[in-house]
Amino acid sequence: MTGPRRLHLNAFDMTCAGHQSPGLWRHPEDRSHTFHDLRYWTDLAQLLERGGFTSLFVADVVGLYDVYRDGPEPAIRDGVQVPVGDPTLAVSAMAAVTERLGFGITVSLTYEKPYALARRFSTLDHYTRGRVAWNVVTSYLESAARNLGLEKQVPHDRRYDVADEFMEVAYQLWEASWDDDAVLLDREKGVYTDPAKVRPIGHRGEFFDVPGIGLTEPSPQRTPTIFQAGASSRGTAFAARHAEGVFVISPTPEGLAPRVAELRRQTTEQGRDPRSVKVFTMLTVVTGATDEQARERYADLSRYVSLEGALTLYGGWSGLDLSTMDPDEPLRFAETEAIRSAVELFTTADPDREWTPRAIAEHIGIGGMGAVVVGGPETVADEMERWAQVADVDGFNLAYAITPGTFTDVVEHVVPELRRRGVLPTEPEGATLREHLYGAGQARVRPDHPAAVHASRRGASDT
Amino acid sequence: MTGPRRLHLNAFDMTCAGHQSPGLWRHPEDRSHTFHDLRYWTDLAQLLERGGFTSLFVADVVGLYDVYRDGPEPAIRDGVQVPVGDPTLAVSAMAAVTERLGFGITVSLTYEKPYALARRFSTLDHYTRGRVAWNVVTSYLESAARNLGLEKQVPHDRRYDVADEFMEVAYQLWEASWDDDAVLLDREKGVYTDPAKVRPIGHRGEFFDVPGIGLTEPSPQRTPTIFQAGASSRGTAFAARHAEGVFVISPTPEGLAPRVAELRRQTTEQGRDPRSVKVFTMLTVVTGATDEQARERYADLSRYVSLEGALTLYGGWSGLDLSTMDPDEPLRFAETEAIRSAVELFTTADPDREWTPRAIAEHIGIGGMGAVVVGGPETVADEMERWAQVADVDGFNLAYAITPGTFTDVVEHVVPELRRRGVLPTEPEGATLREHLYGAGQARVRPDHPAAVHASRRGASDT
What pLDDT digit, counting tens, does each position of A142-192 carry? Predict the structure, then answer.
């Protein structure tokens, strides 16, 4: 590649208050509690588009963080991702007031049927003119499983087996069922769609039977851009096969580097260009006109962190209730896998530090488990370029401390510096989200993507 | 009541082309094939709001009309409700450009989970500021069942048993789980929500177990306005219990009158005010400045009807493939229930007429199975008032011949006449959809509605 490495910015949000920053809803500037108002979303989308963001990434859970203190009360009291709304429903309002911002929407396939979900994403891809991504998750909260009719949660690896087949079904519906020229709108002959250019997918599998045709004509991207955010080994394998954007989390770029390398290695093993996976690492930027102003901002924000809220989040993510432990006793690897994986992220990423429950809570307090960078425009841009270089990431998933304040600060102070350095384009690179990632002309999946094989079934029945 | 009877106008549409008017997508003025473009929906919503419509009703199927000629080809070729998009996703874009229009969205509960669907409608009710209705359906297409993972469709009456419990679960999530003052946003004490004002519903039933709390704080209407459109005896019983708006179809008001009377009788039996159910009958209005212009309009529109498309629709609705019958042989009551119920609508509603397949297709061709009125403003307004008087209906579900042309014609010619007669208000009667139906102040379910009993569980734990 020539020139400096292009960096992608995502905004990380959720249909709730204080998303990754527990307690910060109390900050006087924070508007996250207005998430029920469409204006929150349309204003945010326009801000991000102005700032050259690639996309807005909307997370989701369909349950409660009820591990910490063994019940939902801490989450309810602190407003930790509850109340929480559906993530798919503000997209059209945002799409109507923007031209190129992408929308990465989280939907857990564990509780969906591929035939209906494929139609939902096709409809969103039409309405956004090709700017939608599906962040594929398999739910991690037991409380979701209990309320959605499963006695207990489907085991983790089994969930990914279901996910693999779910994706195959969806790919067939998106890529194979309708030819690009199937819809004729031939008013003379009275042919809306040529039946010879539409075919049933005839899928019979272990988990799903979908014999019929897709319900929608091809949307600009056909398959929505595929995002993935799971960090487990099975999640990484899923990402290596399916993901076009992967969201990762690490306190340091050095800790992240081997994981990104492993992801790219596995992507290559899947027969894909390792650059087909764009890696976004979570980062919270606290900035201002100068380093000094940024530090003042950080000190101000820190006063609103809820440590109880942070441990409530951590309980949901890790399955680990730290309320039973001494807040100042360092965590050690333990016998159970739950505790091992919960601790691993911190200890392996930053092995020189001792992580106590309190230290974890303080770290999570602003921007969740990702890193935080505090500084003026040059400091932040330097740090972003360092992450890209050390960890080989393609961009950042920017969590907020307060919203839209954190994003407003980034757009005002950091974006001009990134554009000055030539790492953030001033002009859009294409109309669709996939073109933002891969370049103009690449609205459809790349040939190395598993959905592409189904595209070859198209046009076989040309008349 | 004093003064003339207030009439409600609904626009009937679907995320597809030529909704109830097969072949009319070929008309040069028709824009229904642009349904993938958000502008189609935002322009339509603004037009309807200007015309004083109560709501836009978006129908849906998650399958194909594949009964006629024993396959999907006729539907695909004629564009009969395929391609078809998801009905929930344009709502926020429309809500953002309107202030009081309601949105009645069809979702089949047969393939949904109440915990997740309750959240979707709560989110829509927040985003619309209380203007959403759920049109509750239990799917009727075998092709939907096959592709959504059911070997064959759940039997009709069983679907309604599931539906009754589904509604109970959803009502509890909407009405009982969160107190109105649960969300405190108390920045001093750091309390987002008072846990004592949020309670798990603890539902254990035959079809669903939902132990937890609802995921969303109360929306303006809490329970979305409930619409229902099934005409079977079990469907009528469901409507009498749950529906606030009921959509019916009949070629004549005289044929409809006993059905409406029976619905109101059953509503009374359920302990509800018979006036709590607002009945909308399907009507297609072909109008112009004068009767003469309207007749010319009708003659022009009729040239584009697809009789094959009409019989394809009829096959899906009735389960009856009329392709095997002589197009000019009158239909008779037959031994099978499918044929009896399919024929019944026409023969009982208009017993003096002989209904052949061709006559049915011609009738369906413009506006589906509902009545068509052709005339200038006074003729149409007279006919509407006659329907209200003879059949005791509260308003009309207006299908289009072409869109937005049919609605534009109604707003231009008929709405001023209805307003002149005082049967259509010039000013909004309230902020929410339910207030449009019941009057200002009635944003929440009326006390006679089955959801209301769950409201009594609120506030019991006041602190």
Answer: 777 888 876 556 677 777 888 999 999 999 999 999 999 999 999 999 999
Taking the Cβ of residue A70 and every Cβ of chain B, the question of whether any pair is shorter than 8 Å is answered with no
CA-based nearest residue to B397, from B384, B379, B412: B384
- Name beta bridge partners: B135: B106, B227
Of B50, B52, B47, nearest to B31 by C-alpha is B47
Chain mean position to CA A318: 18
Note the helical H segments in A98-227.
Answer: 114-127, 142-147, 156-171
Hey, are the CB atoms on A92 and B90 less than 8 Å from each other?
yes
What tokens were used for A118? 């494929």
Nearest CA in chain A to B122: A85
pLDDT score at B461: 45
Q: Which of A77, A86, A208 sits opposite B149 (nearest CB)?
A: A208
Helix, strand, or coil (residue A324):
helix
Cα B226 off chain centre by: 9
Amino acid identity of B308? Answer: E
Domain locations along chain A:
8-456
**Is A165 in contact with A158 (CB distance < 8 Å)?**
no
Pick from A70, A454, A446: which is nearest to A226 by CA?
A446
Instruction: Test B192 with A127 for CB contact under 8 angstroms.
Output: no
For B36, name the nearest residue in chain A, comparing CA atoms only: A126
Tell me the percentage of chain A whose pLDDT exceeds 70: 92
Q: Is the peptide bond before B253 cis (omega within 30 degrees of 0)?
A: no
pLDDT tens per residue, range B306-340:
999 999 999 988 888 999 889 998 877 555 555 55
Q: Å from B265 to nearest chain A CA?
A: 36
Q: Do A209 and B146 touch (CB under 8 A)?
A: yes
Question: Does position B146 have pLDDT exceeding 90, yes or no?
Answer: no
Contact B93 A96 (CB under 8 A): yes
Question: What's the pLDDT score for residue A460?
Answer: 53
Q: Which of A76, A203, A206 to mutate to test the interface with B (most CBs of B within 10 A)?
A: A76
- Please check whether residue B126 touches A, CB under 8 A: yes
Q: Give me the pLDDT at residue B337, please.
A: 56
Distance CA A38, CA A34 (A): 9
Q: B22 Cβ partners below 8 Å, 6+ apart?
A: B78, B80, B305, B306, B308, B309, B310, B312, B313, B364, B365
CATH number of B8-456, picked from 3.20.20.70, 1.10.1040.50, 3.20.20.30, 3.90.1150.10: 3.20.20.30
3-class secondary-structure state, position B142: helix
Structure tokens at B280: 């909308």
Answer with the residue of higher pLDDT: B139 or A11: A11
Q: Which of B79, B192, B195 lies closest to A193 in CB terms? A: B79
Which value, to the nearest 10 degrees, does the dihedral of the CA atoms of residues B335, B336, B338, B342 take? -10
Cβ B111–A116 below 8 Å, yes or no?
Answer: yes
- Chain A hits for B126, CB-CB cut-off 8 Å, are 36-37, 85
Close Cβ partners of B152 (under 8 Å, ≥ 6 residues apart):
B142, B145, B146
Q: Closest residue of B to A64, CA-based? A: B215
Q: How many residues does chain B have?
A: 463
pTM reported for the whole predicted model = 0.95
Pairing verdict, β B245-248 and B183-186: unpaired
Nearest-CA distance A125 → chain B (Å): 9
